[in-house]
Amino acid sequence: MKGKVYLVGAGPGDPELLTVRAVHRLRCADVVLHDALVSPQVLALVSPCARVTNVGKRCGTKCISQAEINSLLVTLASEGNMIVRLKSGDPLLFGRAGEEIEALKNAGIEFEIVPGITSAVAAAAAARIALTDRRCAEQVLLVSAHHAPGKPGPDWRSLVSPHTTIVVYMPGHHKDIAEGLMQAGLNGTTPCVLISKISLPEELAYQTTLGTLRDAPALPAPSLLIVGETAASPLLPEFKSAELRNDDSTLAAK
Questions:
Q1: Structural domain boundaries of the chain?
Q2: Catalytic residue among 35, 87, 90, 197
Q3: 4-114 against 119-232: fold identical
Q4: Closest CA to 40 of 86, 5, 71, 1
Q5: 4-42: buried (b, 16+ CB within 10 Å) or exposed (e) per residue?
Q6: How far apart are CA 226 and CA 193, in angstroms?
Q7: What is the pTM of this model?
Q8: Is position 57 annotated as part of the catalytic site?
Q9: Residues with Cβ within 8 Å of residue 240, at least 6 apart in sequence
Q10: Distance between CA atoms of residues 28 and 114, nearest Å
C-alpha cells in the first residue's frame, strides 16, 4: 500500500506562523524531509517517533541532489509512509516543488500541498509595509537573485515597471542589484529595506535607498530585500541614516 507525501510550508521560522494543518501533518508524519532553512522551533513540533532528515542546500553546497530527493520521496511513499516534505516559507515559491510534484505524479504517488506564509509577506508584516498600497504600488514582483551557475541573473529591464513593489529573495550582492535596478529606470532615492531572520528572535533590518544600497551591511542569512515607495510608508519605524538600530522597535534585533 502506497503512502502519501505532503509538501508543507514551514513559514519564515516562527512556529506560531504555521497553519493548523501544517502542525497536524508534522505531528502525524512517519518521515520528515526538511530544508536547511527550516527553524529548530518548527522542527520541535515533529513527532518524536518520526524519522527526520535534512535534505537542504545552503550557500551552494548540497548534501543531496534534487534527483535524489525526488527518488527518496517516491521510495519512502512506496513503502507506505506518511511523508512531510517541509519547505521554508511556502512550498510553491522558490522551493523546487515543481520538480518534486512531477516525480510524484509520474510514480503515481498521492500528494497534498499545505501552503505556508512566504518570507515576503512575513517581512512586510514585520515592517508594517502594505506591499500593494494603492497610492504607490499596483503590483508586487517576487524574484530570486540567486541563480544556477552559468545562468544569468534577473533581467531587471524586463521585470521592473513603475508603481511596483519589488521583493528580492536571497539578495546576495547588494551592489549588483542596486546597479541593475537603477539601470532599469528606478531612481536612486527609491526606498529599500533589508530584513534578516524574519519572525525569529534574531530578526534584524536595515533601511536605506537604492542609491546607497551598495553600502548596506551583509545581514545574516536568510534575508530579503524590499524595494519601492511602499518601503517609505509612515507606518515603518524610522531609522537613522545608514545605521542599524538595536533597540526594541519592530525591525530592530529582538
A1: 4-114, 119-232
A2: 35
A3: no
A4: 86
A5: bbbbbbbbbbbbebbeeebbebbeebbbbbbbebbbebb
A6: 5
A7: 0.86
A8: yes
A9: none
A10: 14
Tell how far CA 131 is from the center of its chain: 16
- What cell does 115 get? 501552503
pLDDT tens track, the chain, 254 positions: 789 999 999 999 999 999 999 999 999 999 999 999 999 999 999 999 999 999 987 645 557 899 999 999 999 999 999 999 999 999 999 989 999 999 999 999 999 999 999 999 999 998 889 999 999 999 999 999 876 666 777 889 998 888 999 999 999 888 899 999 999 999 999 999 999 999 999 888 899 999 999 999 888 889 999 999 999 864 544 433 334 443 333 333 33
Task: Give the three cell numbers for residue 6.
Answer: 505532503
Bridge-partner residues for 89, per DSSP? Answer: 11
The CATH number that domain 4-114 falls under is 3.40.1010.10
User: If you ran DSSP here, which 8-state letter would residue 77 be given?
Assistant: H
Helices (H), ranges, the chain? 20-28, 40-43, 66-78, 97-107, 119-127, 156-159, 174-183
Side chain identity at residue 19, one-letter code: T
Which one of the listed residues 14, 57, 133, 176 is annotated catalytic?
Answer: 57
Q: Which residues, other chains included, contact 23 with Cβ-Cβ below 8 Å and sequence gap of 6+?
A: 15, 45
87 is catalytic: no
Fold observed for domain 119-232? 3.30.950
Grid coordinates representing 150 are 552559468
Can you tell me the distance from the alpha carbon of 68 to that of 52, in angstroms, rounded to the nearest whole number?
16
